[in-house]
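Q: Biopolymer transport protein ExbD, please. Structure only.
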Amino acid sequence: MAKFRKKRGGGQQAINTASLPDIVFMLLFFFMVSTTMKEVALKIQLKQPEATELTKLEKKTLVTYIYVGVPQRQYQSTFGTEPRLQLNDQFATVDDIRSYIVQERESMRESDRAKMTVSIKADFDTPMGIITDVKQALREAQALKISYSARKVNQVPM
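A: Structure for Biopolymer transport protein ExbD:
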């Protein structure tokens, strides 16, 4: 006579890993899309001035930045310790602003060109004469919408 044996629990079933590569690529794609890259590597020292009344710019894609400040320590042997302009990743002079604005305006859609705003990010200790020169060059380039970047002051109520 044959003996029937009860099957004992042979352990748990293996997890199906067929969809694992899909999940990994979906996560990779999510992080690639949601991560923002740093646009410009600052070559100047920038301590922004403080302000109490600030407004946030609505469309950052329409903003072009001009940085003004003393070159960082590694660039001071080449460019000196006087405040300099930085346009994108390059040091520049006031005379270069006009061609820079034209180039930035050409890279925008035609409908957005009139809405272009130039944001001046200047160091706290930058002399006003340089800012005035930058504003004159922007006026000559027909870039009349200008904003000044600052950081918000934490006011203590009295």
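A: Brief note, in case it's useful. The helical segments are 20-34, 76-79, 97-106, 128-140.
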